[in-house]
Amino acid sequence: MNFRYIMGGLALLGVVGIATAQETVVKIGHSGPLSGSQSFSGKDNENGARLAIEELNAKPITVGGKKVKFELMSEDDQADPKAGVTVAQKLIDSGVKFVVGPYNSGVAIPASRVYNDAGVIVATVASNPKITHQGYKNLFRVNASDTQLGSKMALYAAKELKLKTVAVIDDRTAFGQGVAEEFVKQAKLSGMQVVGHEFTTDKSTDFTSILTNLKSKKPEAIFFGGYAPQGAPMARQMKQLGINAKLLGGDTICTVEMGKIGGDAVGDNVLCSQGGAILDKAANGPAFKAKYKKRFNHDADVYAASFYDATMLFAQAMQKSNSVDPVKVGPEIAKMAYQGVAGNYAFDANGDMKQSPVTIFTFKNGQPVALTSY
Q: Global pTM?
C-alpha cells in the first residue's frame, strides 16, 4: 500500500517535471511611478502590460517548441532618476531581459544606460529626443517624441486657434524642458510671439508668482511643459487670477487626473497633445477600452494601450525570431512591423516610430476628449 502510494507520488512528480521542462518563463519588467503624485499614470501603464500578459498566458504562445509563461515584475521608480537606476539594476539582477518603461524621460535617460549594458530590450513612452539618440540598439520608443508632441501643439495653436502670443512654463525635468523647447521652436516658426518663459519644478503647487508675472504680458495661451499634478493647480490659479489664456500642454496633462484635480478650472480652456491616433476610432480601440474597464474597473488612461502594445510586440518578436534571447529578439523588433491598438509599430535606425500620429485633446466634464489627429 505504502509502496504503491510512493510510486504514484513519484510518477506525479515526473509529470510535473516534464511539464516544467516544456515551459519557458519570461519575465517582463515594468518601471514606473507607482507612488507619489504620478502614481495614477504608473499604475495605468502597469495595468496595460498586465492585461497583455494575462491574455498571452491564456492562449498561450509557443517559442522554440515550448510554451511561454510570462511573469510581470513591476517596480516603483518614483519618477526619480536615481531610483530608476536602482530599479533597473534590481530587474536585471532578477533575470529580466525585457522592460516596458520607464514612463519619465528623466528616469529613462540614465536607466537606459544600465539596461543597455546588460543587454535588456526596452520599450518606453518617455518622449525626450535624447533617449533614442544614445546609440542603444535595443531601445525603442513606442510613442511620439517631444519633437512631435511640442511642435504639433504649436501648429494647432497657430493654425486652428489662430493665436498670436503665447507664454511658456516648464518644470525643468527632462520631459518638461524638452517638450517646451520644441513648442517654442515651432511657435516661432509659425509666426507666434513667445512673450515670456518661466520655470518651476515637478514638486511645486503654487504658481501665483510666475502666473502674475505672465499675466502682465497678456499671452493668449500658456504652454506648460510638465505633469498633471502641477498642471491642474496651475489651471485653478489661472482662473483665480483672472487669466483668460488657454492652458496648453503635452501628453502628461492629457489625463483624467487633470480633470479630477482641476475641477471646473479644466474644460475647453485646456488643450494637450498625446501620441497615437484617437483610440475610439482605432480598429481595436473600443474593444481594448472595454476589456480594460472590465478587468480593472476603471477607464484606461493615457498610455495603457501603448504598454499593452509594447508587451504584445515583445511576444510577437519572440515568435518571429523563435527565441526568447534578446540577442535574437532585438533585431526582429528593429525590422518588423506590428499593428497594435494605439498605432502601427515600425522603427527607424534610432528606435523611434517611423509614423507616430499625435492627437489634440481638450476636456469636457473632467474627461479628455479628442479633437483631431495629425
A: 0.86
CATH 3.40.50.720 at 2-143+282-342, yes or no: no
**The 165-170 sheet, strands edge to edge:** 193-199, 165-170, 221-225, 246-249, 270-275, 358-364, 367-373
Residues of the chain with CATH 3.40.50.2300: 2-143+282-342, 147-275+359-373
Element (H, E) at 338: strand 338-339
Distance from C-alpha of 5 to C-alpha of 33, rounded to nearest angstrom:
51
pLDDT confidence band for 20 (50 / 70 / 90): low
**CATH classification code of 147-275+359-373:** 3.40.50.2300
Average pLDDT over residues 38-56: 97
> Grid coordinates 482662473 are at which residue?
239
Give 30's strand partners: 74, 100
CA 254-255-260 angle, to 5 degrees, is 130
Look at residue 17 in the predicted model and tell me its pLDDT: 35
